[in-house]
Design brief:
Radius of gyration: 24 Å
Shape: elongated
Distance between the termini: 59 Å
Structural class: mainly alpha
Helix content: 55-70%
Number of helices: 10
Number of domains: 2
Strand content: under 5%
Amino acid sequence: MTERTNEQWVANLKADLPTQTTAIEDLHKRLKRSLYYYLSNERSDLATLASQELDQMAQDIAQDAVLRVMNNLDTFRGASLFTTWATKIAIRMAISDLRRAHYKDFSLDEMTIGGELLPNFAERATDSLQGTKPANPESEAERKDVLAKINSALEEALTERQRQALVAIAIDGIPLEIVADRMGTNRNALYKLLHDARKKLKQHLETQGLPTHYMIQLFQG
């Protein structure tokens, strides 16, 4: 595989055939090798996949990454090795592809049945507190009461669309772009939806005597 300087990589990838073709093939080989290492050594969630599957995955992502690199050649400023810059692009694409694959069967419709969150938010929040600093019986009871009120507030104060978005992103940790796609909207509109949902939830909880600073202190104590 030909060794190139940063300037040579850029020039070769912008050159006419066959110079460009050779440079693209070399770049693809480098990216595929780096991607295979990442997928096989740094992704424990892929440990059950056979080497052939990982190789094909690296092959496919590398092809897409080459196109991304070609489309962004003019943004390369030479602050690092060209191959390092291109590899970072490829790894980010791999992370994004794997994240989308993880949530490919995610459905917002499954999050509500008859207007109720499934599973119950209070139960999930209680589970998430396991392993935190032990609370005395009075504090534990207070926490459970507050969690129940938060769960009720999610049901009472928000529209179903606001509730779905807030639970999916803030509680379940589903990436914003995935939720936006499932809801048939865009990032900016989803940001606005989340902002409105948080504002309504905060106001509703305050009318229940649950200001934000009190809840933060309760669950950090």
